[in-house]
Structures are given as C-alpha cells and as structure tokens.
Amino acid sequence: KVYRASTTAPVNIAVVKYWGKRDAKLNLPTNSSLSVTLSQDDLRTLTTASCSASFPASEGDSLLLNGSPSDISGARTQACLRELRARRAALEAADPSLPKLSTYPLRLVSENNFPTAAGLASSAAGFAALVRAVANLYELKDTPSELSKIARQGSGSACRSLFGGYVAWRMGDKEDGTDSMADQVAEAAHWPEMRALILVVSAAKKGVSSSSGMQQTVATSGLFQQRITTVVPENMAIMENAIAERDFEKFAEVTMRDSNSFHATCADTYPPIFYMNDVSRAAIRAVEAINEKAGRTVAAYTFDAGPNAVIYYLEKDTEAVVGTFYHALQGADITGWKNESIKELKCGISLDENVAALIKGGVSRVIMTSVGEGPAPTEEF
Ligand code: DP6
C-alpha cells in the first residue's frame, strides 16, 4: 500500500520585513514580520508526499522539484523531515495500531505554477507545501502555528505561508525557538480588495542570497540595531492596526517605509548589499507619481532581496495603478496582464520619460494578483 497526500501552498510578500537571524541553526529572527498571502491562482507550489513499506529502503527519501531530482540532504530540509517524523513516531508510539509511516522512505514531488527563475519567494511556498503535505500524510494533529515552527526551519518566510490573508511571524524570545511562530492577523475575506501587481525585473547577475545577506547585515550594520529595536516594533503595531481598520493609507505608508528601512540597512552593511536597481527605483518614482496625481495614497511598493517590485493597491484603484504601468509598458512584449479589459483602461498617469523608459526596458513580465487563501489539500497530480 502507498500512502499519499497532496497540498498547495501560497507565496507571501512581507510588508514588515524579516531581515536578521538571532540563531542561524534554529532559524530564529531578530524581529517579527508581517506579510500578505498572495492568491494561489497565480502563484503556488503543489506538493505530493507519499510513503510505503514497499519503497526500497536503499532509495531513502527523495524530492522531484519541477520535474528534476533535487537534493534533499540540505540541513534545512533535513531539519523539517526529522521533526515531522518525530511527531508521527510519537503518534505511532501512543497508538500501536497505526501503520509505521515514520519508518518508510518518503517521496516528495513538488511543482510551482510560476518560473522559479523569476525570483519570487519560491522557498516560502516550497517549504510550506513540504511541511503541510507531510503533516497531512502523517495525519498530524498540530495546528498551522505549530507546523509554522517546522517550516520556519526550512526558510524563515515559509512559516508565514501556512496561513492565508494577513499573517504575522512573532519572533519570540525563547532560546529554543518554541515561541517563534506565525499566526493569522486577519483572513483574506476581512480585506479582500487587496491587490498586488508584481513587476518582474531581470537582474544582470544573481545577488547575495537573503540568508547570507542578512547575516552580513547583523554583523556589520549599525543602522540595523535601530531597525530591530525601534523601527520594526513600531511598524508592526501600526500595520496590525491598519489591517484591522482596513486603512490603506496607513498600510501603504508602513509598507513603503519598512521596505526603505530594510534596504537602508542593506546599504549600511559593510561591504554594502544592493538588491534594488535602476528599474526598481523607477518603479518607486512611478508609484510616487501615481499617488501624487491621485491626491491620496493608492499604491505602495515593496522590494525583497532582489529587484522585483511588488505594488499593493485596492481593487477600486486598478485603473490608476495598473493603467499607468500598462501604458508605460506598451509596446513591450509582456505577458501577465490578467485580462483583455486591462487594454481598455484609459487611465494612465503619464510618467516622466526616463522613468517610463527604465520600466519599459527592464520589466520582463507582470503578475496581477490579490490577497489569497492558505494551503489546501488537493488532488494529486
Ligand atoms: C527579504 O525567508 O528567504 O524576503 O530564513 O534564510 O530562508 P531564510 O530567509 P528568507 O528571507 C526572506 C527575506 C525577505 C523578507 C521577508 O520575506 O520577510
């Protein structure tokens, strides 16, 4: 008999950023963070986990990632699998009638519905799907918050992808990390009008990985101390309030300020780390122009450890936000405009020539998406 479970898991994009580890081994952060889960219609990982006494033990555990055999021996993946097995073994010890799944080799098959190369938080969705799929296979009773502690050890941001909607990762203060986990601040349905426009910006070369970048920042940046002691705690409090009150102006200001603060600590790292490029900065100028023309804040930019821009806006402001970028990108061969109606958007705040040229020359693809739901069991593929 082969036991099997499948799940999908979403991508999340932080509006208060995780940047810095206080314990690299347990993957414990120096600050709390908060993210918006994005719709799985556009971005998700689908993972099937299976195990059987008939799988040859000599084969060991295996992972097929987007169709290619992938290394499973990394410390982070191993930490997740070890913990999941231990929890299954505890259930088996308590109930001897249960099949001993914890002793069988595991086969994991994982696929993204978006190109990995786009640099879109695929590790967050990937580890969340891995943990959720194996937890389902093992019929673990742990809550998503409990499981988030396991996913956190795969990749910090992955702990937030176990929930839909608006999600906080509480840093915790225990040394063993047992209080460093994610919880849901609000469901997607609480503020369903939230949209995200992702401008995929091609980078000349691959930048510093977030794991190594944040460790360099912790070790060398003076500004970073200010960020973790004052800036982030304030941003977390204002952000949670803004979400509770569905106050987009407040949400947007904190989102932009926090992204700026994070990238400032990168510039203050020695030697400095630069994730944004000229195209990213042009996207910031464009958002500023849109907000200025609208006479209120209708769009908020944020950038992770790469040049892609994620722009949050509310559905009612689609014309001002999407229309402007659509017009700036006209003529460029871009995929991703969600539907033909975009082409009918008249609006388009006209952008400064240089800003428009940078965007047109540097954006290779757009993704229009929205706030979405958390992991869900699914038919295997
Ligand atoms: C800038 O979660 O990729 O996207 O824990 O080392 O795997 P590891 O780091 P990772 O870092 C994400 C950093 C960020 C901000 C965020 O998502 O909060």
UniProtKB/TrEMBL annotation:
Enzyme class, broadest EC rank: lyase
Catalysed conversion reaction: (R)-5-diphosphomevalonate + ATP = isopentenyl diphosphate + ADP + phosphate + CO2
Pathway connected to this protein: Isoprenoid biosynthesis; isopentenyl diphosphate biosynthesis via mevalonate pathway; isopentenyl diphosphate from (R)-mevalonate: step 3/3
GO process annotations (BP): isopentenyl diphosphate biosynthetic process, mevalonate pathway; sterol biosynthetic process
Sorted UniProt keywords: ATP-binding, Kinase, Lipid biosynthesis, Lipid metabolism, Lyase, Nucleotide-binding, Steroid biosynthesis, Steroid metabolism, Sterol biosynthesis, Sterol metabolism, Transferase
GO function term, MF aspect, one: kinase activity
Pfam families: MDD_C (PF18376), MVD-like_N (PF22700)
Family under the similarity heading: Belongs to the diphosphomevalonate decarboxylase family.
Protein name, UniProt field: Diphosphomevalonate decarboxylase
NCBIfam families, A to Z: mevDPdecarb
Cellular component, GO, one term: cytosol
Entry EC no(s): 4.1.1.33
PANTHER family reported for this sequence: DIPHOSPHOMEVALONATE DECARBOXYLASE
Residue stretches making up the Mvd1 C-terminal domain: 196-376
InterPro entries noted in UniProt: GHMP_kinase_C_sf, Mev_decarb, Mev_diP_decarb, MVD-like_N, Mvd1_C, Ribosomal_Su5_D2-typ_SF, Ribsml_uS5_D2-typ_fold_subgr
Record-annotated Diphosphomevalonate decarboxylase-like N-terminal domain positions: 9-182
Organism superkingdom: Eukaryota
SUPFAM superfamilies assigned: GHMP Kinase, C-terminal domain (SSF55060), Ribosomal protein S5 domain 2-like (SSF54211)
